[in-house]
C-alpha cells in the first residue's frame, strides 16, 4: 500500500511540473507530420471522452478504401498513435500526454492499447482519437502487453491476468515472465520478453500455462517491443532512444518479411488494419430432430470476399460451444458433429471469421428438437403403464405402437369404472393423458420403442377412492414417498406384469415399500380430492 501511495504522489508531482517539459517529438531526427487531428489528452483530473457507440472504428479505412498501418511510439510523457500508409508515410497521428501506451491489439479493425502508467486497456477510435476504457484494474500497477484469443484479453503484471470483453477479470495464472509484447495466433499465446526472446505458450489447460519450448525464436533485433499477429506473420517495432528504428513484419523463425522506417522514436508496437471485407454469414444444413446422446452432423459453408481462409464458431445452444474451428478454405463445406445430453429444443447457429479476425454475422439458426428414447418391455397378458414423453396419442395409437397389443383400458375415477378400447375397432377410443396409468393387454412378449420430449409437468385430478396415476420422472421414487405427497392417500398398488399379481403398500407402514420407476402406472386410494402435480 505504501508503494502505491508513493507512486500516486510522484505521478501528481509530475503533472504539476509538466508545464516545464517540452516534448521530444519535434526533434530533427524523426518525421514530424502536421496532424490532421490531435487526440484526447489527459490533463490533471480531466475525464476521458468515451467513444460514441454508433461511431465506426473502420470509417477512416472505409473512406480511404485501402489498408493502413498503426504504429505506437512514446517519448518520456507523451505517446502517439500513428496511422501510416503501406509505404510507411504518415497519414495522421494522435498525441496523448501522460499516457504511456505500450502493446497493441487489433480486433475486427479496432485498435486496443495497453498502458504502462496504469493498469488499463483502452479501445481507440481511429476517427477521433478518443479512448474508451475497457480494463481498469487497480489491484495491479501497469500493463506492458495485451493479447486477445477471440474471447478473453490477456495482460501480464507479475502473473498472467485474463479479462472478458467487458473488462471483468476472469482469473489469474502463475506466470514468471517479464513481457514486453504479446499476441495470439489462433492456437497459442506468444510473448516477447525483455531478453529479446519470443516464447510460445499453451493456454488450453488454463489456469495452467505450459511453454511450447520448440516454438521459441528470436525477433529481428534486440530492440523490439510489442508483438502482434496478422493471421500469417508477426509484427513488432524497435524502441531505441534518439534513433529511428524499424517496424518489422516477420515469420515464425524471425525472418523479416517487410520492414519500414519508424516515423518517430521510440516505437513500441505496430500492426496493420486491412481493407478487408468480412466473410458472408455461414450457411448451415443438417437435421432438425435427433435423440439425446446421438451424434448429429451439420455442414457449414461460408465465402470470404477476399478468399481468405476461415474459422467457424458454433453456438450449439447448450453452453458447450467451444473454440474457433479451422482454418477452412473459403467456400469449402465443413462437417462437424455434436451431441446433446439433455432433451429440449435448441437453436444452433454459426459465425465465421477470416485470418484477420474479421467476423461475419451469425447464420440463420437451425432449430433442433432433441428427444429422449423411451424403451420399455412388456409381457404377454396385462401390463400397467404410463407414457412419460410428450405425444398426441389415443388408446388406438398407443395400441398400434405396441406390437401384439389388442386392448387398452382406462380407469374413470369419477365413476370408479373401467373403459375398454379394442385396438382396431373404432369404438371407445380415448386420449392418453400425461401422469395417468393405463392397462394394456398383449398376446406376446414385446416392447415399446418411441422417442419424444420428456413430460415436464402434470396436473392430474385426484378423486376420492381409487385413481390410476403414472410416474413420468426420469428418476425413481418409492411408494411411501409418493403416498406422502398425495393428500389423503392411504394405499399404493403396483401391478407385476411377470406374475400378473398386485403388490400393495399401506402408506405409513414399513412393509412392501416398492420402488417406482419411470413409465410405471399405479393404483392409489385416497379419501380426499386434490390435484397431483408430479410431487413424490
User: What count of helical segments does DSSP give?
Assistant: 4
User: How many β-strands, per DSSP?
Assistant: 41
Major sheet attributes: 6 strands, mixed
Q: For this structure, what is the CATH class of the largest domain?
A: Mainly Beta
Spans where pLDDT lies below 50 across 5 or more residues = 1-24, 26-59
Task: Estimate the mean pLDDT confidence.
Answer: 86
Protein topology:
Layout: H1 2-16, H2 59-64, E1 68-74, E2 78-84, E3 90-97, E4 101-107, E5 110-115, E6 120-124, E7 131-136, E8 147-148, E9 153-157, E10 159-163, E11 169-173, E12 179-184, E13 189-193, E14 198-202, E15 210-211, E16 224-229, E17 234-238, E18 246-250, E19 256-261, E20 267-273, E21 283-285, E22 289-291, E23 296-301, E24 310-315, E25 325-328, E26 334-338, E27 344-354, E28 366-378, E29 381-385, H3 395-400, E30 405-412, E31 417-422, E32 438-442, E33 446-452, E34 460-462, E35 465-470, E36 477-478, H4 479-484, E37 489-496, E38 501-506, E39 515-516, E40 521-526, E41 530-532
Parallel strand pairs: 22-28
Antiparallel strand pairs: 1-2, 1-20, 2-3, 4-5, 5-6, 6-7, 8-9, 9-10, 10-11, 12-13, 13-14, 14-15, 16-17, 17-18, 18-19, 21-23, 23-26, 24-25, 24-27, 27-28, 28-33, 29-32, 30-31, 30-32, 34-41, 35-40, 36-39, 37-38, 37-40
